[in-house]
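Help! Submission page says 'invalid entity' but I think these are all valid:
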Amino acid sequence: MKRIFLMMIALSLSLLICGPVRAQHIGPYVGANFGVNLLMDAKATDELGNFNMSYSPALQWSAVVGWDLKPNSSVGEGRVELEYTRRSNSLDSVEFVEGKVSGGGDLTADSLLLNCIGMIRDESSWSPYILIGLGAARLDASGLKVSGQPLSTDTTTVFAYQLGTGVDYALTDALSLDFGYRFFGTTAPTFTEPGGQRFKTDYFSHSVDVGLRVGF
Amino acid sequence: MFRLICAAVAILLLSSCGTETPTRQNDFTPLTSIQIVAAAPSIAVNTSTKLTVIGNFSGLFTRDVTSQAIWSSTAPAVANFVTPTSPSRVTGLAPGPAVLTATVGGQSATFNLMVTSATVSLITITPATPSVPLGQNVQFTATGTFSDGTTQDLTFDATWTSSDATVATVGDTATDEGLAKTLKAGTSTISAAFQTASNSTLMTVTAPVLQSIAVTPANPKALSASTEQFTATGTYSNGTSADITSQVIWSSSQTGIATIAATGKVTTLTQGATVISAALNGVTGNSNLKVTGGNLTGITVTPANPRLVLGTTVQLSANGFFSNGSSRDITGVVGWSVGSPTVGSVSTPGGGVALLTANAVTAAPTTLTATFNAVTGNINLTVAAPLLQSLAIFPASLDLAVGTTGRFTATATFSDGTQQDVTLNANWTASAAGIATVDNTGIVKGRVHGVASGSATVNAAYGGLSAPTAAMMTVRARTLTALTVTPSPATIAIGNPVAFTATAVYSDGTSQNVTEIATWTIDNLNIAAFADSTNQPGQVVGIDTSTAVLTASFGGKSQTVNITVH
């Protein structure tokens, strides 16, 4: 993990000192992103009360396919894209009335979002942007455990959204690097416990990633 | 748009900080052992003790699992669980040993209990001679001292009685043994008996004590240079409540922003926030007061430099100018002083009204000063004594609908050629009270009321003269079809007033100003309030930024106006 961060920082610094002006790409593109995801502590509620779930940070990756809008487009500067992302966080601990106990298993979110990205473009190769995305996520509670005992193994599909910001760096007319931050959230998913009762929890995460886009 | 995006981002980020103190017990971690805990390893025969079961969950935490325990005894004739309402309570039935077993979730534990043949020799009741305010309960405990020198809690096994059940009752069932409930002030002897021993203690029930104070209005907003009446309501230990406004000690945390009198009346001085507190017998209630509208920078007094005829009265008005650029009437809060007190006097009958009466002729003008929070406004007062020449009423006639009002004024002309409005000094009469009446007291002198269809005359008398021509009043029965309020909608700056006008529209096409007699309400007085309900009906002043709804009602019709305060 530390090595990945160091590589990202080194790459960012090297790009900061070189900035050839490129022609803007217009049209379709594909890309892939890779980064780190921090799933926030979440409150879970069932008919017996509420408890808190803490997760470990995890890697995430995305694949995008989209369209670079032409400059001065009637809908603004930027691009629209379809993004698939996968992140899988381990349940680190669970807090009940009696205190925290160890957790186990993974909570995996596969999301498919339609992103609208607004960009600020000028003569520079650097283009900051903001992003909003809407779509759906499939949340898979895979062998979630409390003190080694089963908590849930279940799957649900929920409405998902994300807000993000970042900066693009145009390597060539058709090749761009993307350094971004994303806040990702879903409507509250519900999972089944071994006893048959269901608990509802939150799903919000922060992530930073780096990506590469290729235009056609 | 940018603000909208920022707000949405903030809401989403904040919504992610969602953990709370857990309320759910951990029933996932396996229970690996249990332990029985008792107050003592032995009890006397015919007494009981409650056992507790503590569960150990995989060595990670412990929890009381008594309620889940299933109990058994190896010697049920010696000790057994015979109290259905308290399954974990074991009773000694005969002297001897018994092994008690508890089972919870597949885990078991045993406890060796010895039932002795000791007999009780003394009972002690605690608390001794308690004094309790009406409405509060007391849990008594009976401790037995036995023939073998041991002591044991006998609260559950003793028989409890109260000598005066109208003052206090004491429970003697499995769920309320020894629990005394107060019913009225007085004294009662609480007794506990077990076998041949008994004891008692005197319980005194005192008057209910104050437990909390609610200060209203709660967290209000008010303009600077205004007054606000606060009320303190006390809640007592017996659940009753009472208005204790005059009993509490009032205070303001920021006396430079607002002061409060012993009556609970707050006077706001400058813009800011202060906490209004009411305290009594160690109990305090608070209300946060926000003062808006800028700080007072100047005062102007009207009428400017009046020349009054000896013995006449005029209404004074003080207008304040504030640091936020607003200006408004502050007559109700200023203090008045006259340079030569014998020349004139100012009375403040309430409702934001100030009346100046000329008492003595001046050789030279004297100064009349309005003061608030060290800011002053001055005018020069001159009093003369010319001879009254004539009196006239204006307007010469009024046409009113039944149930509405109008105003006449009286103007006197004097020997030096001056004229003065003497409406407040005149004696007003109406010729036919069944058709129209005229107010003849206070600042509403000269106001006429249409009572029934017909005609009447209204006249005024002053200084021995009457108006040579009485005013004509025609009162007509009209059908109200609509009520309009202007301006609508309205935008008001904080601290500035807007005068709304209510107009009644009748079926015959006529209309009449009914501002003075309409009923005015505002849905949120922390946003907009009436400048002065007595003296300036329909005049609204902005308190804080937001929106409010003003409603005027008259003759069964209502009209609302949306007000935006900025």
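Support: the input was valid. A stray whitespace character was the problem, and the output above is from the cleaned input. DSSP finds one helix and twelve strands in chain A.
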